């Protein structure tokens, strides 16, 4: 299994076509340490926990 966010340099467009693999780019929204794929969810988290959108550390 590959690490999240990395691309395999061995995978070619031809192999992707052969195996019917598609690539989909997805927006990600961060609220502090939490990650969401729906903006509405990130906003709801921020409203539940004001200040949670600030990075901790």
Your description of this structure?
This protein has 57 residues and is of the alpha+beta class. The chain has two helices and two strands. It has a domain at 20-48. It has helices at 13-18, 39-48; strands at residues 29-31, 34-36. The longest helix has 10 residues, at 39-48. The chain is rod-shaped and about 50 Å long. It starts with 12 loop residues before the first helix and ends in a 9-residue tail after the last helix.
Distance N to C terminus: 29 Å
How many H/I helical runs?
2
Q: What does the radius of gyration come to?
A: 17 Å
The assembly state of the depicted protein chains is single chain
Unreliable stretches: none
Order of helices and strands: HEEH
Question: Helicity range of the residues?
Answer: 25-40%
Strand content: 5-15%
Shape: rod-shaped
Biggest beta sheet attributes: 2 strands, antiparallel
Helix- and strand-based class? alpha+beta
Number of strands: 2
Chain-averaged pLDDT: 83
Neighbour order of strands in the largest sheet: 1-2
């Amino acid at each position: 299994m590959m690490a999240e966010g990395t691309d395999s340099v061995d995978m070619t467009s031809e192999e992707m076509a052969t195996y019917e693999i598609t690539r989909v780019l997805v927006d990600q929204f961060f609220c502090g340490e939490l990650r969401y794929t729906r903006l509405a969810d990130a906003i709801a988290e921020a409203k539940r926990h004001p200040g949670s959108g600030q990075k901790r550390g």
